[in-house]
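hey can u check if this looks right to u? its 259 residues, i copy pasted from the old doc so theres a chance i mangled smth
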Amino acid sequence: MDQGPSPKHVPIAGVVVVLLVDFIASKKSWGWMKLAQGASNFKHVPGLLFSKVMGSGHDGGFGLRPSSTHQGLVLLFDTVVNAHAFLEGDVSIQYKQYAREWWSATLVIDSSRGEWNDVSWAPTDLAKEGLTHLQQDSTLVATLTRASIRPASALAFWRYAPQAQADLANASGCILAMGLGEAPLVRQCTFSVWRDTQSMLNYAQGGAHRTAIQAAYKHTFFSESMFVRMRVLSMAGVWRGVYYPHQPAAMPPLEVAHA
């Protein structure tokens, strides 16, 4: 269940927070408890409009084998101030303290189509957030794709998915990607960060990904789907052994370095 009231078909706008976690072994039961509790973990978080707590595939990947330690949070806040306050607050700190690796980011929404549990997202109001200086080509690009797969179509969908996901992991310009899910097989989500828009488009419009998307829409694999394009305001952490330094808004893309 999503956090906060949102009338059906009325888009909500704000600032997105994504937190990726790989729990240390001794804390994975704590992580499973948080996964089971879902949105109820965040009912008192100021300014939170939407929240999802999701599991992941093995090693944070996209396969059907679940991970016992990897999780991802996708949260939408009403303002950038509340988004940053969450990342600096007790809830986020506890996730990070219990993690072997973690990565977090704040993001603004450039465009969105589709819905997630009957909720649609709208572009971030940059003027409201004091971010009118943000240049389209000066920040890293991020995408979030999620779908509810019709149970009868699950096997057909997963025939296309592995190659598309393998291509994503090796795509030029992709600096981070993680497979997430609300439910095994049928509620899937992909989050990725790209060096630039063209790199993202090259992947999205070619190869196995294009074939999979064309098949999905031709055969109506999805009962609901959403695609969101965003820009990175800030990010920090270590993921899969790679250190991601703080990325201030309106700064050239930073090189990542192995920890």
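The longest helix spans residues 154-169.
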